[in-house]
Amino acid sequence: MRKIFKTQAAGPVTGSPEEHKLFEKIQETLAYQYEHIFPDKFAPKTVVIVPSLTLDMEILSKIKGSIHYEERLLCLLMLLRMPMTRIIYISSMPLSDVIIDYYLHLLQGITGNHARQRMSMLSCYDLSRKPLTQKILDRPRLIERIKNLITDRASTHLTCYNITPLEKSLAVKLEIPLFGTDPAMFYEGSKSGARKTFRICGIDMPDGDEDLKSKEDIAKSLARLKRKDPGLRKAVVKMNDGFSGDGNAIYRYPELEINEHLETKILDSLNENIRPVSHDVSQELFFEKFTEMEGIVEEFLEGEIKMSPSVQCVIGSSENIRIDSTHDQLLGGDDGQIFLGAIFPADREYAADLGEIGKNVAGMLSKKGVLGRFAIDFISVKQDDGSWKHFAIEINLRKGGTTHPFMMIEFLTYGKYNAEEGVYITASGNPRYYFASDNVQSDKYIGIIPNDLLDIAMYHGLMYDGASQEGVVFHLIGALSEFGKLGVVCIGSSPERAKEFYDNTIRVLDFECED
User: Above 80 in pLDDT, residue 3?
Assistant: First the structure.
């Protein structure tokens, strides 16, 4: 009897010097791909897509329908508009053909049949709470299937949601470069590392302290902030590797006398005055994870008019830096710490300023070896003279909530963001805007299957129209039936038009789900 599959040796140990050497050698081919193969519409290329949210699984599990966030990178199926491009997409569980067909119908100039011949959808058939990348690494036969689908490694790369030692190991096993930053540089994208980068770049940020390890450190920082500003009412405590605000907590200062005992009094009453932003994260879990990840404390910025913009940057090589987009983020929760969605582009009053700050930070990170997409988040406060003051708060060395909406408008309209003017212009010369959200959610929507959603969208005229380059693009479709949760990108010829599409989508869904 002989085995059907002959899998290769396990390869170097994760995190070993041998693995790192192999990774560095493989990564050497990425600069050529980025500059010569990526932009060439007719260059044969293969993109291996692993949409793994390789984050703290205990925190991630608190997000409803988190397994369906693997669908967010389905926007990359739009790469199939290039007729010589192949896609290999791996997910935890098989994705519905209805959802795949929906994305393929958005392709312009390419038939669905032609696209399907260049697309391979693979699955781990695993609903466990492990990161998708770990599931793949646990399946050597699946890795062999992926490798057998790659015809030319010199024109193939791996793209992921975020990059950890797991994604690095997968790149080595697949023998293809990874479009992103070596996870050995994780600290640069942590809350603490970001503060140090902002300080070096001379960028304003909230007063605070980084590299905190314990409750005692937190109390010491809170006391320092209060002594410096006796009128300070709140502070934000953040885990180094938190995401979407779920790694944050708000501290509210009680009435305390500012004296030599302030730090002790804050520490003794810390549990009474701090509250995790996520209602599903207990105080006990928050402090456990903070001790594990470490983190920062920052003053809570007040302001009568306050915005939460971000700038998205791409580093292809040390000489190739691009400002991809700017957004005004929509934040929810009791203290405005939870990411809900985004408006694109950011307000023209300050979008160009954000781009300049982004270039400054990208230049610094590029010198340190950072690659791929990343975002810088801000809190912007309008001053009495009408100007805006921008406080940088974090760097996300990964794709994020603003990545897939921008990719969709870029793929659908062949446009480009002008960072100097803060506007997005389509290939036909028209400005376009969008209103995007990952959190269209209502218990009333539970039970709507993908077929139902598309029927509703077509009947009510919500579907994106390629002729007018306006309408609604849906994502997280798989989360709708079980969790009543959906994502939308509402594209319009003006900010008001984009918001109108969003409001109409909510009205239609509410109407269709009435008892």
Answer: no
